[in-house]
Amino acid sequence: MKKKVETLKENEEYVKAYDDSKFEKPSVTADIVIFEIFDSEENNYRKISEKKLKVLLIQRGMEPFKDCYALPGGFVRPGENVCKAAERELQEETNLNCNFLEQFGTYSDPERDPRRWVITNGFMALVSSNHEIIKAGDDASAAKWFDVSFKEVNGEWLLRLTHEEDVICARLKEISSQWDVKKKFKTIESDDIAFDHQLIIADAIIQLRKWITETHIAFRLLPEKFTLRELQQIHESVLDTKLLVPAFRRKVALLVEDTGEMTGDAGHRPAVLYREKLQSGGRENE
């Protein structure tokens, strides 16, 4: 105990005398990639709507990158950790209630922000088909949901974000080595996306695709009760591929349970409603 007290006193003296002026101090931010699944608009009411993955972007109302689209986010305040900052910014900039918020990456390129050295932390948030009214923050002129497409084409990765007449594109090159545990990208060309947010969005899509195949995260994009078709559509929308019905249903059979209820949608054959099966000890970690 005596040794510990002596050590604490030595530490206090060291901290008082320590000069950190030779080290540049970067600012720290949190940027949030918010995903939600929307039904596509169908003219034929008898046809079951497809699901579309969308990401929320805000249009910046001030410099830098005025009028460009960006992810919701902001600076970490004194006395605040980065996770609390992400939760606060999510509420202040969008007014959305999300049931999943997880950090997935850190971005520290000294040139990523023209103002100064800013290290940002990428967070992924999921919204479960509530379609709440979004509220753009004070520094944003608009907030919109964009359709998401991210595919490899002729050796490059094309990120395409679409909202009605607004189309935003970025071309990325994969720079992963055989030792990397996840894909890495660099920007070849980016159109109307602020900072390096095209890289953050690309990383979030890749991470979501990984999580949806390995965890229960798909249920965070669904209401409490859903059909197996809706669950499959969630997977197909995120993975951007069609899945075989029998194989998919075998895969999820142990993850869901029958509610004993049926859908009552006009024009469609009634379908069984399911819910996520709770694991022993509560929900599995996503």
Tell me the overall shape: globular
CATH superfamily of the largest domain: Nucleoside Triphosphate Pyrophosphohydrolase
Mean pLDDT: 87
- CATH class term of the largest domain: Alpha Beta
SS strand fraction: 25-35%
CATH topology tier name of the largest domain: Nucleoside Triphosphate Pyrophosphohydrolase
The overall number of domains is 2
* Number of DSSP strand runs: 12
Helix content: 10-25%
Count of alpha and pi helical runs: 5
Low-confidence stretches: 282-286
Termini Cα gap? 42 Å
Series of H and E elements: HEEEEHEEEEEEHHHEE
Radius of gyration: 22 Å
CATH architecture of the largest domain: Alpha-Beta Complex
Q: Structural class of the helices, strands and pairings?
A: alpha+beta
Biggest β-sheet: count, sense, barrel? 10 strands, mixed
Domain Nudix hydrolase: 25-174
Keywords: Hydrolase
GO molecular function, one term: hydrolase activity
Organism: Agathobacter rectalis
Question: Can you characterise this structure?
Answer:
The protein is built from 5 helices and 12 strands. By secondary structure, it is of the alpha+beta class. It folds into 2 domains: 28-214, Alpha-Beta Complex (Nucleoside Triphosphate Pyrophosphohydrolase), CATH 3.90.79; 217-276, Arc Repressor Mutant, subunit A (Orthogonal Bundle), CATH 1.10.10. The strands form 2 sheets. Strands 1, 2, 3, 4, 5, 6, 7, 8, 9 and 10 form a 10-stranded mixed sheet that branches. A two-stranded antiparallel ribbon has the order 11-12. Strand 7 and strand 8 (156-163) form a beta hairpin. The chain is globular, with a radius of gyration of 22 Å. Residues 282-286 have low confidence and may be disordered. It holds the Pfam family WHD_NrtR.
